[in-house]
Structure formats: structure tokens, C-alpha cells
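Hi R.,

Here's the chain you asked about this morning:
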Amino acid sequence: MEYRNLGRTGVKIAPLALGTDNILNPTPEDVSRRMILRALDEGINLIDTSNSYRQGEAERVIGEALKESWRRDEAFIATKAHYPTGPGPNDWGNSRLHLIRACEDSLRRLQTDHIDLYQLHRPVFDIPIEETLSALTDLVRQGRIRYIGSSTAPAWKVLEGILVSELKGYVRFVSEQPPYNLLDRRIENELIPMAQAYNLAILPWSPLAMGMLAGRYADQYLRPEGSRASLRGGIYAERVSPRAVQMGNRFVRLAREAGHDPARLAILWVKDQPGITAPIIGPKSVEQLEHLLPVLDMKLPEDIRAACDALVPPGSAVANFHNSASWMKMQLGVG
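And here is the predicted structure, written out as C-alpha cells:
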């Protein structure tokens, strides 16, 4: 397996990362632990989580699994802060007050003395970036975190952070974690070129488009039992529009006619796109993880790349995976 640099750092990570949003929601704790250890067995070292996943319980499960197996040093732990952790007005956001408190809580749940990559789960536009970066810089200098990143932010906001860091000597973003899959390619317009120019790692979430690229939604009007669209509703259900399902099923046919498994091919497509460091996979079971592991060593054929471009042209979208971002004003039709 060929490891990739995390942006301009010297850190090497596998070309797939393990996402943990399914821990306890719905994946049971014992299965979640087995998935974490199995991923490490296969060389997947970046484990992505958040203090908002199951109200911090995902961090606890990860921390206990790594501590009890004595494998903390094999893992590159990436967690996030931003979403509410309590009812108070300062229990959310990207302020110095909240980030330092949230970091301390995450360290305790993860049972570790440092977080490898600390990410802003969403941008905030009414707090000066200097306040956020100065707090993160202090956490790095204290040894509590090693690197910083952001998630689901517009290209200009990430670049603002990079330039302010350069100007004022703050710690610099090394990664951005955006939504990206064949059904929503909008980051190719600005974010990817910016990341390539400034050597920023891109760690995409939802490479399977919530299963639409894996053949999960055979009927464009039905929500399969156990799917995120049926379990969580809201923004998750909004992404699964009839048009998106229709296009996802066209991709499934394309993959099968070419002799490929659709789920593997969808993730491979993301992994081998220009500017991508490692897509984040979110298996619900050890079996699902095992099924995706071959992608670590696969290469995307150029004829398949061209066929995918013909299906959903570069820079375009047929599904709205930016619907959790308040800054994204472009709304896609549901037809």
C-alpha cells in the first residue's frame, strides 16, 4: 500500500481513513471496537471522529479500544469541535473559550495526552479567525494537539485561515474535510485547486453518497430500512432525491457492466481523483469494512474515469451534500 502525505506535513496516512459516525448509531460497541482494530491491522491509520458523534461516546469507544489494545501509537486520531456540547451560549462554536474546553473533554474521552489532528467541524463567520487560530496555536504549543484542520468550509474561508497563519505566525491548517462523491463534485471548482496550490490535504466524507452509489436505493421513492435517510431523516433524507438516486443507479449499472463492485468503485473514484488525500469510509460492520479494504491497493482505470465524467460532469452536482453548510446558498432541485 502506498501511503500519502497529510498535506505539507511529514505525516504518512493510508489512502483510506476510517470514519466513526456510525459508532453506537447504529453499530454496537463491540463491533465498533473490532472495526477499529481490523482497520489498524490493514494499515489504515487515520481514525476520524468528532465530539458530536453520539454526544462524545464515539470518542470514548475509540479511546478505550486503543488503550486496551495498546495500539494508540498506531493510530492517527482526528477529531472535531464546533457543535453544541451543552445548553449554554458558549457551549458551541469556534471561540477560544469553547475550543479549549472541548479539547480538554475530547482528550479525557479518548484517554490520550494529545490529539493528532484537531478540526473545526464547521466554519463560523462572526468570530474573527485570529481568535480561533490563536487558541489552536496555544493548544499545539501545549502539546495537546499536533495539527489542525477544518471541515465543510468554503475555499475562501480555508484560505483566509492559511494566509492569516502565515501573516501572524499562527499554526496552519493542514487539511480540509469536505463532502465529495460522484453525485456532488462542486469542490472541484475552487476548493481542490486551492488545496493543490497550498498543499492542503483533502479528506472527503460520504464518498458512497450515503449508499446511492452502492445500489442501496433500488427504488428512487423508497428509503431502505437501516439507511441513514430512514434512521436520521432531516438533512440525510434531503440528500436522497429521486434525481440523485436515478443517477446513482446509472453508476451502479456502469460499474457492474465493467466488472466492478459499485461500492468499491465509488470509493476508488474518490481516492484517485486529483488533489484527494484519503476518503473517509464509514462502515457499519466488520463485513462492510472487509469488503472495502481491497480499494487500498486498487487504481482507477482511465476509461472508467471518463465514463464517470460523462455521467456527472466535473464540478457539477445532482445531489446536495453541502446541505449541512449554512454558507452554501446553491440549492439543487429534488426532481
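One quick note: The first helix runs from residue 29 to 41.

Cheers,
M.
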